[in-house]
Amino acid sequence: MGKAKFGASAFEYGVVKEDLVPNATVKVPGLTTAEMELKNELKTLMADDGPYITVSGGISEATLSLELFDLPPKVKQDFFGIDVVKGVEVYTRDLTPNDVAVLFKTKMEDGKAVWVAMLKGKFSLPGLSTKTNDGTPDPNPDKTEGSFAPRGDADRGTMVLIGREDQPDFDLETFRKWVFPKTAEEAIIKADEPAKAGAGVVDESKAG
Question: pTM for the full model?
Answer without folding.
Answer: 0.81
